[in-house]
Specification:
The complex is a heterodimer of chains A (48) and B (307). By secondary structure, chain A is mainly alpha-helical. Helices cover 69% and strands 0% of the residues of chain A. The chains are: A mainly alpha (48), B mainly alpha (307).
């Protein structure tokens, strides 16, 4: 079996992922998600 | 523990998982007003700023959260403002904690496929030479249909498209399209080739799910592909106790995702349903935080013993 990835790699990656998410929030991407999600997505349901 | 006792315990665990899946499905689609006949209404509150962790169309009349794959494409569509950091980061956090655990426990579409597979018919095993290359299709879906095309393609009017949602996703057709079309006569009048195409894909998916375990998850789902990338680094991992394992192969026979847990316990294909853990007669499989229990080196133990 291949050597497993040490836990410290995971623990180091978690703050990076949180920072990436926070960067997206800072850039206003949450508003894009909300704007898309509160209207019926015609493409998604096969009408658009 | 005898065989019958172990079987009963496995059945109980499977029941619990189904209950969690169903409970989550109901909870995340609890906007009752959306299911009432009349003008199409979907939930428009602030909860939709947050994505649910599994596949769940945000145009489902009951949806309280956003679909992560749809949201990712919506951000890429809007490339002047978005680079996808919010959703990619959010999904990476989930992936780093639990990997594909979400697929087995918190995905409504996964549950629907599992229930269809329960229909008593002869089941199909896809030959390995077809199955193996097909598994890569979900990565093509993720990188081409979710990342690249929505990011780079623009129509002559300068508009991007959510390619995966528009041309492939059967979840949107089932959870969003069909209920909305059934509830609203206005929408029924707007049906065209795209709906027929997506409806055909949905029928294929439903038919395949009766004979093959979770075909959408195995071959198509870009979200499963994304979480799968974190299986080997996630905080929660599967572990094989090599001292207990007798290579009997029961775990591989139990696994409906066609993983061999005692060889590749953290395979990208494993959805962490834990069925192999309950099936193992030697109790050699477990789910741990990290690679497994930390063992102190001998020289670090000695002083404590001497003391």
């Amino acid at each position: 079996m291949k050597r497993e990835v040490p836990l410290k790699v995971t623990i180091a990656l978690i703050p990076l992922a949180i920072a990436l998410c926070a960067f997206g929030i800072y850039r206003g991407e949450v508003a894009i998600v909300l704007a898309k999600a509160i209207n019926i997505c015609m493409e998604c349901i096969g009408l658009g | 523990m005898d065989k019958n006792e172990q079987k009963a315990k496995a059945k109980k665990a499977a029941g619990l998982r189904k209950a969690v899946q169903a409970g989550w499905g109901i909870l995340s689609n609890a906007y009752i007003k959306g299911f009432l006949p009349g003008d199409p209404v979907i939930y428009q509150g602030k909860l939709k700023q947050v994505c649910v962790p599994g596949m769940n169309c945000y145009s489902c009349p009951g949806a309280l959260g956003s679909c992560p794959i749809g949201s990712m494409q919506a951000i890429f569509d809007n490339r002047n403002r978005g680079i996808g950091a919010y959703v990619v980061g959010y999904l990476a956090v989930i992936g780093l904690f639990v990997g594909r655990f979400i697929c087995a426990w918190l995905c409504l579409f996964g549950l629907i496929q599992e229930l269809l597979y329960k229909i008593p018919t002869p089941k199909l095993t896809v030959p390995e030479k077809i199955d193996k290359p097909l598994r890569y299709l979900k990565y093509v879906m993720l990188f081409v249909m979710v990342f690249l095309l929505p990011f780079f393609y623009r129509s002559k009017y300068g508009v991007g498209e959510p390619f995966f949602c528009k041309y492939i996703c059967p979840v949107g057709t089932l959870e969003g399209g069909i209920p909305l079309v059934l509830l609203n006569s206005m929408m029924r009048g707007a049906l065209g080739w795209l709906f027929r195409w997506k409806f055909l894909l949905l029928l294929l998916c439903i038919a395949a799910s009766i004979f093959i375990y979770r075909p959408f998850c195995k071959y198509i789902c870009p979200l499963g592909a994304f979480y799968g990338l974190f299986q080997k680094v996630s905080l929660i991992r599967m572990r094989v106790d090599k001292e207990k394992c007798v290579d009997c192969g029961v775990c591989a026979k139990t696994c409906k995702m066609n993983v061999d847990p005692h060889k590749t316990p953290n395979s990208n294909e494993c959805i962490r349903c834990r069925e192999c853990i309950h099936a193992c007669p030697m109790h050699a499989l477990s789910m741990n935080i990290g690679p497994g229990p930390v063992q102190l080196p001998e020289q670090e133990v000695r002083p404590a013993e001497e003391a």
